[in-house]
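User: Here's a structure from my thesis project, written as structure tokens. My advisor, Dr. K., wants to see whether a designed sequence matches the one we expressed. Can you design one independently, without my sequence as a hint?
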């Protein structure tokens, strides 16, 4: 059941204002390979050579262009009517994601710049607009083939190779406007405390210094029933309030927790008053849930949690990284649940917030994983750190996210096995992440060569269950670095010892049917029976080792040349879903 705050296609479902303007749709577009647009003052107006359907990038069919070759600079333009009745309010222009550097102008005046292809950002454009008139927005997106920028699975060569796909350049998530008061709620951090039956709200209020008898009220409900109403006077920009949630909303003094089997969500409405006048109203929600680690197990709400995850790269045939629709996101989640998985590892991609919303609603566990750089350099340290911390803050409130994964398979830290600088980088990211969010596990290098890490995760594409059982029958040898965890990588970097962390197999399988069109892991199979025999053998072998407390199968769906999904790229099941479910659950 959707939350009370839900608005279809609303791009920021954790922080909802009812009035907004969607700027997706047709924009003027042109390439700027010679990088002349700024000098030629295209920001004041340019003639597009193409029409593009935002938020789909020019590389995709859904954009209406479908040119896959790389172009380092591209321009977007469109006019927007700012109504006269909005005068007196602030006009905020939001971008959910632009890859990689975005420069924005309004009516020829530059209003801001943002770097980072996966984090959302916004600009206050009030000083640049004319109310009651058409206003011209211009966006220049700059991309590169640099491996010092976080790029995830985006190729940096002319053609696709191995598991790297067509690049994503420019606007690839929703662009939108909202009109707000000067005094308003700017951000909100929600922290549940299951053990104390309480929730903490950390607020940032814009314009608090101006005074004006400001007060903020929070109204908490559960399934439409009132739970708590609390208020506080606003005398500074940053404030915190803790709310006791012991209540009778669902039975006598019962805590309604969030978990896959019962993803209970509390609705909350925040109302900001200046005197008796409402100056802002924001809707949100939260889940009461706790993730912890104890005695080598991951616990959800103080109960051991066995994680049945599936790798999800979030690509679509005609739209690549951009979801073709909100319905497509829901369809993916429903199919994942139908196949007996209780979570996803979002691989090398920061996903659309609407996906996380529906995982919150439907009870899907999520590992949020940063897009990697592929070169270790001071510049890469800077770009990675800045964007990763933006993302942790932006995704913090989603109860479905239970694990942070900043690094994967030593990508961007290729010498982390022995190199002290690269090891210290991973330690720094670990501790910075914990400074923002001490409540979720952090995995510093998913797959192998761990430094400090809350969970020890291993990747192994061994082909049969028998071979897996033989390799992992002596886990002590792997954990003590006497042998590798697969054929070539150690579980821990040099100088680090196993500290009793939970152990999970977070990539395995990757089985592909026989085809010349692409690849999978290991030998391709010819028949459905052969596929299922291998799939079942591997799954049961992993589940047969008591010390392993979860797994992540590769993967949900095919992606371009990588054809090892349980679904085709257009989401057709390759095998009976009920059989996959039976293997996962029995």
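Assistant: Designed independently from the structure alone:
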């Amino acid at each position: 059941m959707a939350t009370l705050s839900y608005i279809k296609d609303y791009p920021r479902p954790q922080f909802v204002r009812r009035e907004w303007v969607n700027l997706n749709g047709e924009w003027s577009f042109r390439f700027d390979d010679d990088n002349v647009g700024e000098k030629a003052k295209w920001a004041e107006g340019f003639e597009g050579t193409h029409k593009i359907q935002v938020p789909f990038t020019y590389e995709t069919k859904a954009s209406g262009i479908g040119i896959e070759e790389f172009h380092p600079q591209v321009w977007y333009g469109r006019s927007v009517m700012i109504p006269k009745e909005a005068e007196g309010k602030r006009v905020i222009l939001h971008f959910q994601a632009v890859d990689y550097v975005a420069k924005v102008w309004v009516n020829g005046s530059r209003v801001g710049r943002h770097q980072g292809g996966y984090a959302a950002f916004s600009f206050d454009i009030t000083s640049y607009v004319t109310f009651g008139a058409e206003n011209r927005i211009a966006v220049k997106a700059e991309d590169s083939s640099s491996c010092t920028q976080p790029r995830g699975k985006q190729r940096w060569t002319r053609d696709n190779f191995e598991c790297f796909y067509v690049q994503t350049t420019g606007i690839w998530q929703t662009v939108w406007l909202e009109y707000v008061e000067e005094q308003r709620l700017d951000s909100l951090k929600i922290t549940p405390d299951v053990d104390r039956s309480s929730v903490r709200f950390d607020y940032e209020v814009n314009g608090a210094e101006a005074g004006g008898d400001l007060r903020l009220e929070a109204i908490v409900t559960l399934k439409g029933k009132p739970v708590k109403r609390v208020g506080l006077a606003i005398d500074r920009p940053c404030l915190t309030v803790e709310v006791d949630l012991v209540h009778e909303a669902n039975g006598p003094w019962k805590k309604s927790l969030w978990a896959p089997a019962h993803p209970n969500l509390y609705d909350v409405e925040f109302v900001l008053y200046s005197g008796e006048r409402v100056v802002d109203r924001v809707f949100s929600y939260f889940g009461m849930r706790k993730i912890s680690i104890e005695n080598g197990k991951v616990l959800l709400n103080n109960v051991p949690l066995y994680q049945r995850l599936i790798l999800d790269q979030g690509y679509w045939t005609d739209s690549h990284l951009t979801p073709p629709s909100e319905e497509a996101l829901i369809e993916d989640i429903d199919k994942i649940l139908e196949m007996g998985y209780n979570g996803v590892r979002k691989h090398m991609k920061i996903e659309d917030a609407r996906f996380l919303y529906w995982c919150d609603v439907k009870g899907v566990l999520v590992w949020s994983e940063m897009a990697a750089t592929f070169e270790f350099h001071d510049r890469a340290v800077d770009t990675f750190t800045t964007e990763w911390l933006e993302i942790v803050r932006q995704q913090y409130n989603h109860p479905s996210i239970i694990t942070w994964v900043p690094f994967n398979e030593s990508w961007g830290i290729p010498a982390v096995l022995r190199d002290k600088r690269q090891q210290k980088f991973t330690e720094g990211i670990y501790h910075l992440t914990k400074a923002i969010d001490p409540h979720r596990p952090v995995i510093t290098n998913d797959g192998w060569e761990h430094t400090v890490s809350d969970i020890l995760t291993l990747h192994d594409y061994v082909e049969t269950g028998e071979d897996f059982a033989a390799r992992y029958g002596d886990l002590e040898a792997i954990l003590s670095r006497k042998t590798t965890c697969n054929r070539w990588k150690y579980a821990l970097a040099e100088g680090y010892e196993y500290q009793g962390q939970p152990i999970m197999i977070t990539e395995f399988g990757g089985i592909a049917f026989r085809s010349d069109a692409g690849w999978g892991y290991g030998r391709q199979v010819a028949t459905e029976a052969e596929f299922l025999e291998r799939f079942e053998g591997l799954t049961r072998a992993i589940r047969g080792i008591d010390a392993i407390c979860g797994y992540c199968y590769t993967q949900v769906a095919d992606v371009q040349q990588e054809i090892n999904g349980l679904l085709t790229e257009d989401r057709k099941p390759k095998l009976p879903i009920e059989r996959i479910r039976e293997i996962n659950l029995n």
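When you compare it with your expressed construct, this may help: The longest helix spans residues 378-395.
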